[in-house]
Amino acid sequence: METVETVVWALWAMLPAYIPNNAAVLAGGGRPIDGGRTWGGRRVLGDGKTWRGTLIGTAAGTALALALTQVEPSVSAALGADLPTFSLRAGLGLAFGAMLGDIGASFLKRRTGRERGAAFPGLDQLDFVVGALLCALMAAPSWFTETFTLPVLVVVVVATPVLHVVTNGIAYLLGLKNEPW
Ligand code: CTP
Ligand code: K
Ligand code: MG
């Protein structure tokens, strides 16, 4: 694959993992997953990780994966490229994995004394990528190895933090998010 093709392929393949956290920002609220419980004097996860946000985020990412699969032939034809499609397992793995990675990061933030909303550079930008890739690998192993070849993985790891900074900056400026990370 050419470089441009690899970048387009990688970003398309990751779209179902990019949407969940943003959907959760819009949909979040209600009961926190940790039910207010603490561990070592600090919240297990904090009020920023809710059942509603997690559910709606996962549903949004999965729905997007199925929609992308529907439009893939026409988009590929229009671009003169070849783009990946998503099985339900692949879409669900990416979407739920993105949410799990973000939840795991909040767990680590609380254990290291960071309050809700505190920045953890590096972790903030890659938590959902690692979660999404690991879950997709477990949920749809053969789809994963066909879709995420080594060059594609390199693009994902380099491009995602950039995209994350940009989208969160926009969400902050629009007043949707309390912090720009
Ligand atoms: N959100 C949610 N459920 C999730 C993830 C996010 O409801 N599983 C919502 C919450 O309203 C949260 C907002 O999206 O406040 C922003 O998400 P994020 O930045 O991940 O959470 P923070 O509030 O910054 O908390 P933390 O420090 O734990 O990341
Ligand atoms: K986060
Ligand atoms: Mg935050």
TrEMBL record:
Signal peptide: none annotated. It is a multi-pass membrane protein. It comes from the Archaea. One of its GO terms (cellular component) is plasma membrane. Catalyzes the formation of CDP-2,3-bis-(O-geranylgeranyl)-sn-glycerol (CDP-archaeol) from 2,3-bis-(O-geranylgeranyl)-sn-glycerol 1-phosphate (DGGGP) and CTP. This reaction is the third ether-bond-formation step in the biosynthesis of archaeal membrane lipids. It is found in: Cell membrane. The chain crosses the membrane at residues 6-29, 88-108, 128-144, 150-174. It catalyses: 2,3-bis-O-(geranylgeranyl)-sn-glycerol 1-phosphate + CTP + H(+) = CDP-2,3-bis-O-(geranylgeranyl)-sn-glycerol + diphosphate. This is CDP-archaeol synthase. The lineage of its organism: Archaea, Methanobacteriati, Methanobacteriota, Stenosarchaea group, Halobacteria. InterPro entries: CarS, CarS_archaea. Its main location: membrane.
